[in-house]
């Protein structure tokens, strides 16, 4: 039975997975995007459906405005113990709520608890439950990977830290997980940074707290220095299915161009693992391939999965779908959905500001794609604008928008690359309604426009390579976003969006 990677497309980095009976649950980093910590469900590890978020309420956590792609929610781990799901993670930044914390629930598709913060250093925490019922915090510090007893009912770590292993010498030893098999404790970590030298390494011991011996064949998994379509593989979690087969879900990137670049973020890859010997063998002799042929998948039949090849939203309800994100904690005064439209009220911010703005986006999940939306925006105040953006971060985006400029309503195309920006094209546009289309491929992002019922005309675009992590991003991928900004003062007119549609491939025009 063949499957193709990635199994979860788009910006879903730092995966962690657990199994409960026939069901698998997956969580990912979410950084500055809200709601945070998406939760996905599958029965076969290949087909995944988003069922909720761990951080769905603004009063759960503060995502402090600041640097895009660098702050917010990092590297969660999900575990199940005695009827309760736990997700432990880190809020990175200058927020009063910064640091390591966990949330819990009995229903992963429902509401999760308020965060319970821990006095622990480092990032990428994990939990380990031993066979005797003991609970442990697994973390990172300057001395290396360590474990410490944790009381999850009291919400605190107890006893001394036990430093287990410093890794093999690669940079940034992180993402630790512990598993027990055949009397051995296996410690798996990531090293080499999350870029092209990313790798998995392992050590094991008969004792949880000491004497870890590294695998003689480290790294156990890496695609570094190999001409493979998937690069930067690492930050994995292991899971055993009900048939006794082992699997890893890891992050990786689909690169293009030369030198290699990626723009969809770090995506989720599935890797079969042969754990019949003393050490696990990942994938194809430690390599992650685009396609694997396996005897069988864990589940019977096909799991319910998100339809990412065609997504449309008519905004018929007040609650947005699970694929939409805001930047930082959303301000209710900035947007409203329902009755067939999404209404945004732009504040005084600019699109380049690393702050809360009237912005809602969904992940770009295919290199070749088409997005359509209808915008109605009177924009009578100088400087106010609203439109469609392909957005990596506040300093790297291309935008097509209606804007009041020099006393006239204009249709504009802007490109921002770092601190350099320019309105590449502006057209006098007296009407207040326009349909906007964005098409993407490996080379270009191109915007088109038309008056309702008219013919499509090209507005312009920009090279894909400037909206890549290598050109100016960090830990996230590109989003297709709808926005409204006042560029110095609050907008006096609302921006109304209708009939949003994202689909794989290019639509003929």
Principal-axes shape call: globular
Please identify the structural class as seen in this structure: mainly beta
Distance between the termini: 38 Å
Taking pLDDT < 50 over at least 5 consecutive residues as the criterion, the unreliable ranges are: none
Give me the side-by-side strand order of the main sheet: 4-25-28-37-30-31-32-33
Q: Return the domain count.
A: 2
Helix amount: under 10%
CATH level-two architecture of the largest domain: 5 Propeller
What is the class of the largest domain in the CATH system? Mainly Beta
Strand content: over 45%
Tally of strands: 38
Provide a descriptive summary of the structure in words.
The protein has 509 residues and is mainly beta. It folds into 2 domains: 2-293, Glycosyl hydrolase domain, family 43 (Tachylectin-2, Chain A); 310-504, Sandwich (Jelly Rolls). 1% of the residues lie in helices and 49% in strands. It contains 1 helix and 38 strands. The protein has one helix at residues 469-472, and strands at residues 2-4, 16-20, 23-27, 33-34, 36-42, 49-55, 72-81, 84-92, 99-105, 116-117, 126-129, 135-141, 144-151, 156-165, 174-181, 184-191, 199-205, 213-214, 230-240, 246-254, 267-274, 281-282, 291-293, 310-313, 325-327, 335-338, 341-344, 358-363, 369-376, 385-393, 396-405, 408-417, 420-428, 433-440, 444-450, 457-463, 479-485, 495-504. The strands form 8 sheets. An 8-stranded antiparallel beta sheet has the order 4-25-28-37-30-31-32-33, with no helix packed on it. Strands 24, 26, 27, 29, 34, 35, 36 and 38 form an 8-stranded antiparallel beta sheet that branches. A 4-stranded antiparallel beta sheet has the order 2-3-5-6, with no helix packed on it. A hairpin with a 2-residue loop joins β15 (174-181) and β16 (184-191). The longest helix is centred in the C-terminal third of the chain and has 4 residues, at 469-472. The model has no long low-confidence stretch (mean pLDDT 96).
């Amino acid at each position: 039975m063949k499957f193709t990677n990635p199994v979860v497309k788009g910006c879903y980095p730092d995966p962690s997975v657990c199994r409960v009976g026939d069901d698998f649950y997956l969580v990912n980093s979410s950084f500055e995007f809200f709601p945070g910590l998406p939760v996905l469900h599958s029965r076969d590890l290949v087909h995944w459906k988003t069922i909720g978020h761990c951080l769905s309420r603004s009063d759960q956590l503060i995502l402090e405005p600041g640097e895009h792609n660098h702050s917010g929610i990092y590297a969660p781990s999900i575990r199940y113990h005695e009827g309760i799901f736990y997700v432990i993670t880190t809020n990175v930044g200058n927020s009063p709520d910064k640091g390591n914390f966990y949330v819990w629930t009995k229903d992963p598709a429902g509401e999760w608890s308020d965060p319970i913060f821990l006095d622990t250093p480092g990032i990428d925490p994990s939990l380990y439950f031993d066979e005797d019922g003991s609970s442990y915090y697994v973390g990172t510090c300057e001395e290396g990977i360590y474990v410490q007893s944790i009381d999850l009912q009291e919400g605190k770590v107890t006893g001394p830290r036990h430093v287990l292993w410093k890794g093999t010498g690669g940079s940034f030893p992180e993402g630790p997980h512990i598993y027990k098999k055949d009397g051995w404790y296996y410690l798996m970590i990531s090293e080499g940074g999350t870029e092209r030298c990313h790798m998995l390494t392992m050590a094991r011991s008969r004792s949880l707290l000491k004497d870890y011996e590294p695998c003689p064949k480290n790294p156990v998994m890496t695609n570094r220095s190999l001409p493979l379509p998937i690069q930067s593989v690492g930050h994995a979690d292991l899971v055993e299915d009900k048939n006794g087969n082992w699997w890893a879900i890891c992050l990786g990137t689909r690169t293009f161009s030369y030198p290699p670049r990626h723009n969809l973020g770090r995506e989720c890859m599935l890797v079969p693992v042969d754990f019949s010997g003393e050490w696990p063998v990942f994938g194809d002799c430690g390599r992650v391939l685009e396609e694997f042929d396996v005897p069988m998948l864990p589940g019977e039949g096909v799991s319910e999965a998100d339809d990412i090849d065609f997504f449309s939203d008519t905004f018929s309800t007040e609650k947005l779908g699970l694929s939409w994100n805001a930047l930082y904690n959303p301000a209710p005064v900035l947007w409203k959905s329902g009755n067939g439209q999404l209404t945004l009220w732009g504040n005084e911010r600019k699109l380049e500001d690393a702050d809360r703005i009237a912005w809602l986006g969904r992940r770009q999940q295919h290199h070749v794609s088409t997005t359509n939306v209808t915008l109605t925006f009177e924009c009578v105040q100088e400087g106010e604008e609203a439109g469609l953006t392909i957005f990596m971060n506040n300093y790297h985006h291309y935008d097509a928008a209606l804007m009041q400029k020099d006393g006239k309503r204009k249709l504009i195309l802007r490109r921002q690359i770092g601190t350099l920006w320019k309105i590449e094209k502006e057209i006098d546009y007296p009407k207040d309604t326009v349909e906007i289309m964005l098409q993407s491929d490996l080379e270009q992002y191109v915007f088109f426009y038309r008056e309702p019922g008219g013919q499509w005309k090209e507005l312009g675009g920009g090279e894909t390579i400037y909206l890549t992590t290598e050109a100016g991003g960090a830990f996230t991928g590109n989003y297709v976003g709808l926005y409204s900004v006042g560029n110095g003062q609050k907008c006096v007119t609302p921006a109304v969006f209708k009939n949003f549609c994202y689909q794989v491939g290019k639509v003929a025009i």
